[in-house]
Amino acid sequence: MLSELDFSPSEAHAGFMKVLNRHLSVATIDAQGCITYANDHFCEISGYPRAELLGQHHNALSSGIHPSDFFKSMYEMALAGDVWQGDICNRAKNGLIYWLQTTIAAIWDADGILTMLVAIGTDVTAQKKKYEQLELLQVCIERTNDVIVITEAEPIDLPGPRIVYANQAFETLTGYSREEVIGKTPRILQGPESDRAPRDRIRTALSQWKSIREEILNYTKDGQKFWAELEISPIANEAGWFTHWIAVQRDITQRKANEEQALKLAFYDSLTGMANRRLLIDRLTQAIASASRTGLAGALLFVDLDFFKTINDTLGQNAGDKILKLVAQRLNSCVREGYTTARLGGDDFVIMLEDLSVDATQAALSVEELGNKISAAFMPPYQIDGKDYWISASLGATLFGPDRPLVDDLLKQAEIAMYAAKVAGRDILRFFDPRMQQAIDARVAMQDGLGLALKRREFQLHYQIQVDRAGKAVGAEGLIRWSRPGLGLVPPGQFIPLAEETGLIIPIGLWVLETACAQIKIWQQHEATRHLTLSVNVSVIQFQAPDFVELIRAVVTRHGIEPTRLMLELTESIMVKNVTETISKISELKTLGISTSLDDFGTGYSSLQYLKKLPLAQLKIDQSFVHGMLDDDREKSIVHTIVVLAQSMGMDVIAEGVETQEQYQLLLTEGCVKFQGYLFGRPQPLGQFEQNLRQG
User: Fold this and answer.
1) Average pLDDT of adjacent 10-residue blocks, the chain of 696 residues
2) CA distances from 56 to 28, 49, 69, 92, 94 (A)
3) What is the DSSP code string of 236-270?
4) Does 445 map to a domain?
5) Do 484 and 579 reside in the same domain of the chain?
6) Which residue range forms the structural domain that includes residue 95?
7) 243 shares its domain with 283
8) Both 636 and 523 in a single domain?
9) Whether residue 545 is found in the same domain as residue 638
């Protein structure tokens, strides 16, 4: 049959070589270890032209990863007449490493003299990287304190999704080994008192492929009950098909026990239904212990009605009780779930706030916000027997943190602060700590000043240079500064959060864009600066505005700039909400020619599933990783992973916070292409920046 086909040996050889060049890496090495032949695929993977490879010792491709005796044992096996097989790590011309699954055999001539070693390999770099990432992910999951269980995605109905993975925390909490539960359903944890209602809600959510969080009662292997806070989410593959469910559980047994104990005590005020003093003290004791563990501050807010005694004496106790009930309702309407409202007696009320913040000032701001809500809630009149009565309240607050203060001391401090509010004029809030009061007053003053800063032209843009691998300037980041009269430059970290809270970030962000585009226009007119890109930060609040893209288009058009010179830096929090809208907006910006960069990459919770869909131009390595990579191999691995991830997705990558030559050199080695940090220049006013730019 073969003789009937017009298939000459030369054509067969050519076809074989074509397939070989496309799929296999082939090289030969002489007895001295020098490369004598390399096929097209070998040259393509290594990045070296064939002319540069021939005659080179194979050590020129060494990555330095293998131990010193690795190649020695390889040659000894080949020279002994055996075929060596294994994975070899080489370094390409561009500095990146790659892996070849290699077979090596020795060739002798008729006289038994070694003529060459033939190495045939397959590129397994991608598989290696995926395996390393999976290993890293598995280590992280195994070391977490939360219980993690993964099940198959279907079927939802009986017998139910079966478990395919459970971590070490699962074994510790439930007493079941992984081997005992693999292939079984999570129903193995149910018991006689398991509530059906939350499980029905879970089944409904799963049938709709939705995430859900519930609190459920489960049982350990030896029959002990435990409460778990359970969050279940679907996992999709690259094609978008849901393949598994991941369930994260946290043991909340102690918390539930505390709640049940409090209910059994029934220590509530009979008039208002609020907690009474004894229950408040019990909960405050627990809150103090919690604050000592977590570092999150709590607070007591003492509320005393102004001139209530006069109303009570005039109208009588019955009318006074009606007012107290209405006061309790208004207070409860102001307090979010998890806080405790209590009546101590008479017209004295206390609100206990927990888990506010590790920062005392931020905790105090939360208390102030609640105080403002209470004051607003007290403004409408109280109707008693058809008549209107107006009652205000004096508020006193004190904070507590990890120093474990005494309960009685906290109550006294809050009461003292309340009396200070009465002395100051009533219907206001005062803090026990004068420094905290000063911080609140300073914040109010800053908010007032921030509202006028644009009109008074107090904002400035400072510029921090960005360079390429050769140290040449390729752009800058525009960083806003507030030159506040009498106080000097205010760092953005102090006023940007306030601007976002108050909505002032919208006009401030527009000013930054206008100023940046005006500067780009000026740079475009000069040969030395027309290549520069200017990056500016965009707040999530700005980005989420419906007309954001149109606003950017209008600003760019108004200034007549080349859109590619403008880079918008976004944070990972843009992906928290509407991912589809986010992708759409970034795509529209790309169509306009405007690039986007994902700032502080790696510090948030970016989903790779979404990241690969975002048409980003750049990833920005957070400075925390840059600072830590010299001393921590894990930080170095993260930097390497980000660089490789950016390259695989066709994105640019820039490292911020580069301060030393050692950091710069290591980033160069890892393949980073752009850099920003004090090593190259601090943020500077425009004049100083341009002067340094001219000086090179």
Assistant:
1) 40 54 84 89 91 89 85 82 87 88 88 86 83 68 80 65 86 90 88 85 85 90 90 83 86 85 73 90 92 91 88 83 93 90 93 91 90 91 85 92 88 87 84 72 81 90 95 95 89 86 89 96 93 94 91 95 95 73 91 91 63 86 90 89 90 94 94 94 94 85
2) 11, 12, 20, 14, 17
3) E-TTS-EEEEEEEEEE-HHHHHHHHHHHHHT-B-T
4) no
5) yes
6) 2-123
7) no
8) yes
9) yes
